[in-house]
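Before the break, one more example. Copy the sequence into your notebook; we will annotate it together after we see the structure.
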Amino acid sequence: MLSYSKVEKHIPVMSAEVLNYLDIKKNGIYLDCTLGSGGHSQIMLECFSEIKIIAFDQDQEAIKRCQQNPFFASKNITFINDNFVNFPQYLTELNISQVDGFLFDLGVSSEQLNDDERGFGYRQDAPLDMRMSAENTNSLTAQKIINNYSCQQLAEIFREYGEEKKAKKIAWRICQTRKKEKITTTQQLVSIVASCFSQKSKKHPARRVFQALRIVVNQELINLSQGLETALQKLKSSGRIVVISYHSLEDRIVKQIFKKYNELGHYQILTKKPLIPSFEEITINHRARSAKMRVIARQK
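Here is what the structure looks like once it is written out:
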């Protein structure tokens, strides 16, 4: 087992576990389905320089950051600016029928959270956007949802995708507010949501509403289900899929799909219970605190 101390200088979550459970093969082909700033791909190539990585991210800014990283200049990595759900067409273009492993590190990146123009974060003021792609290829934004969806639709979104207990109350207050003025910024929304809570909590009152909006805007759960199903079919014998999720909705989908394929008899779940980061890692990287990792392998 690779010790965490050897990779603690890196930002990516559960890097040691990713390397251990992917069981990387010499000259293998791996898909990093959520490139971000390239941390996982960099560690994989540092430890196994002979592998080929095909890295996806629908955010052009993420692709640019990695292309500007000198480390990747001479490495066998292909960057693709698209959602991972579309990976089969690129494998066809590259004349690849199956791959040795997939990595999904889900959720929003730190760079996206800190971008004042993207509207993912609830701690700074920004336009209510929440689109993963900075190129705005998706016409649906959080602002459109907040200002145009019915009170019932908003409540359903907050309840289903944010697991928010006060979904109905928050939706009603949003609808009352937008009658007077259009809701266009994150802090407008934060103020409305916060007004629905009487007691202070350790966790931000708007976090579940923001999660729900982000999931709907980017079709995250639909893409995850479809992407995992296809990845399982494109996996080589003895290949593995590693998924890191950050909330119960994602983790539930991964658990259910892995269970379904495990019962088919051609796949084996390697994590009976989801792996979680060590206390040491959480101390170094606070973003890791809610991470859960599940792994499945295709049998020989």
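Confidence is low (pLDDT under 50) at residues 1-10. The chain has 13 helices and seven strands. Try to locate both features in your own notes.
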